[in-house]
Specification:
With about 425 residues, the protein is mainly β. It contains 3 helices and 25 strands. The protein has a domain of about 100 residues. The protein has a 21-stranded antiparallel beta sheet that branches.
Length: about 425
């Protein structure tokens, strides 16, 4: 519940919260971040320039709860989130998730963030949870990134994508999912052009994501008005430990648009002692065919320099949507977080089709193909159709087929009808 606080109220809150901190040492990191939030309110704050404080419970349960505390003024915001558990087997009863100070005027597209954040992956890079400084324009996270605030990630906190999760569900090893302490249910579903996957994280918590297999191309305004710069320490054991940080990390993305519709994105990533990547992505409308994209990137690590080439095509109308991405890479190319001793991808193709056959009939098709330099190949095809029957409910049909060592296949037909009150 939000309320206003001036300097007198702030001092009383600080004293009371300090006593609570001393009584509960397991919450020390959360206490420290909240104290910093109180200190960020100007001492002369009066009735007109006071700050709004809000403490909310995102989820409350006897065994595990999630809390969010924020302190907001006109141009700044301090926010911290944490999860608490009564499980005595855990080393920490209260685990801090993120704490950050954000400075951004409502009229400005630029923002400055100090503290915990997630990097901008650009069109082909990796999203990394880190602590440090982030500056740039406000941009939404890429649509295929599984960016859930409570998703626990063991080891280096690199956030996986929808394609990583779907390939892992069909026993493809080169996805980094297992290294993050995640498992994925073998059953995947579809909702239009989106894929539905269920993960189980390192805390044993299940998360269901319904997101695009192939994200749409982002549009760019004329000029170089979109950018993001990040530097800090990469998070380790996110949602498992409060203050575990790993190697230094840096990330930069700059996107420029032209009057002819051409968008040019330059993106770079660096992880101390592991890998450095840099590349360019070009996106251009090509008339009735839709929009085409070409990306070229290089990585440098202890195995040497590697290269990635990725091409894509997107076509969207009111009733039809088609997206495809295909990539090829050399054996030495590695994304952030990929072990040098792990197998290397040779090529990967992702494609999705969504069609509105009528106002009550939706059809979707997804295809994934991946081949490694070690000779492993997997092909996956999924289909779904939803037929609305008006007052009589709806029928959903889903079929999946994976061609690999197990050759998994499934067909599911369901009927849903609301009961009258």
């Amino acid at each position: 519940m939000p309320f206003r606080t001036n300097s007198l109220v702030r001092s009383r809150m600080s004293a009371n919260f300090s006593n609570a901190c001393r009584a509960n040492l397991s919450a020390a990191s959360l206490c420290a971040t909240f104290a910093l939030a109180l200190a960020s309110v100007p001492a002369h704050a009066g009735r007109d320039d006071a700050a709004d404080f809000k403490l909310s419970s995102l989820q409350f349960a006897p065994t595990a709860s999630a809390f969010n505390a924020s302190l907001t003024s006109d141009a700044t915001k301090f926010e911290t989130t944490a999860i608490a558990t009564l499980d005595k087997s855990r080393s920490e009863n209260v685990v801090r998730l993120e704490s950050a100070w954000l400075s951004a005027n409502e009229d400005s597209k630029r923002q400055l963030r100090l503290g915990d954040s997630t990097s901008n992956p650009g069109s082909w890079g990796s999203a990394v949870r880190f602590a440090g400084l982030q500056f740039g324009t406000r941009t939404a996270m890429r649509a295929d990134i599984l960016d859930a605030p409570r998703l626990a990630l063991a080891g280096l906190a690199i956030v996986p994508s929808t394609s990583d999760a779907m390939l892992t569900a069909h026993k493809v090893p080169q996805t980094n999912i297992a290294q993050r302490g995640l498992s994925v249910a073998s059953k995947t579903g579809f909702a239009g052009s989106n894929v539905s996957v269920t993960t189980r994280d390192a805390n044993g918590r299940s998360n269901t994501f319904t997101q695009p297999l192939v994200p749409k191309f982002a549009r760019a305004e004329t000029g170089c008005n979109q950018y993001s710069m990040s530097v800090g320490r990469a998070r380790q054991d996110y949602a498992l430990a409060s203050n575990s940080y790993g190697p230094w990390f840096a990330n930069t993305t700059v996107t420029c648009g032209t009057d002819l519709g051409l968008a040019i994105e330059a993106h770079g990533e660096y992880l101390q002692g592991e890998n450095g990547l840099a590349g360019v992505n070009l996106t251009q409308p090509i008339g009735v065919l839709g929009t085409a994209a070409l990306a070229v990137a290089t990585s440098d690590n202890d195995k040497g320099s590697g290269w990635l080439v990725r091409m894509g095509l997107q076509h969207t109308t009111d009733r039809f949507e088609f997206n495809v991405r295909t990539r090829r890479q050399t054996p030495a190319f590695r994304e952030l977080g990929e072990g040098l001793d792990a197998g290397s991808i040779s090529q990967r193709t992702l494609a999705s089709i969504g069609a509105k056959l009528s106002d009550r009939n939706m059809f979707a098709l997804a295809y994934t193909n991946q081949t490694s330099y070690e000779g492993q190949r997997v092909d996956y095809v999924g289909m779904s159709q939803v037929i609305e029957l008006g007052y009589h409910g709806k029928v959903s049909i889903m079929a999946n087929r994976a061609i690999n060592e197990t050759e998994d296949a499934s067909v599911n037909v369901s009927y849903l009808r609301k009961l009258k009150k």
